[in-house]
Amino acid sequence: MVELVGAAPENVVATITPQHVIISTSDVLDASGCIVFPHNYCKPIAKSREDVEAVIQAMISGSPKFFLGTDSAPHSPETKCYRGENGEIPPNAGIFNEIVALPLYLSVFERWIGLENGLHQFEAFCSLNGPKFHSLKPSEETITLVREPWMVPEKIKGVVPFIAENVMNWKIVK
Hints:
It is a single chain. By secondary structure, the protein is α+β, with helices and mostly antiparallel strands. The strands form two sheets. The chain has a two-stranded parallel sheet with strand order 1-2. Strands 3-4 form a two-stranded antiparallel ribbon. It is globular and about 50 Å long. It has helices at about 1-5, 50-60, 100-115, 115-135; strands at about 15, 65-70, 145-150, 165-174. The chain has one domain (about 1-174): Alpha-Beta Barrel (TIM Barrel), CATH 3.20.20. Helix 3 (about 100-115) crosses helix 4 (about 115-135). One of its GO terms (molecular function) is dihydroorotase activity. Catalyzes the reversible cyclization of carbamoyl aspartate to dihydroorotate. Keywords: Hydrolase, Metal-binding, Pyrimidine biosynthesis, Zinc. InterPro entries: DHOdimr (IPR004721), Dihydroorotase_CS (IPR002195), Metal_Hydrolase (IPR032466).
């Protein structure tokens, strides 16, 4: 899809979710194709490591054709696990990434192109490319991220967030 969007006319763009620059198929499925990590299950399903790297390259490219799209989907724990006597009802697709999205995106920019070089592209990816494509004025509100380790909680109001119980190096402060 990265190649398709990149080669398409200007009116074809793509949003990139934080999970699609972090996880691959093995973070969702076992070798037989069964969902074993339901809190990482989303649609489209995570792809190979090579596909993840292609999405990262698109994200950090500075191209206005790619921009933030969290698609955050909080589901209760009981709907994120197989239901039914024989597990016949699959978990709901969707990842609750709202609280980690910006810190994750910034971490990827920092890792792949360096913080100094990546800040301009990070701002464009998160705040400018989407509004420009939709002929909207960017918001004048700001969000501040600081380099400060914090632990992603195990649950937020009963919902398991993306990368729960992992340490993030960037934190949103107001």
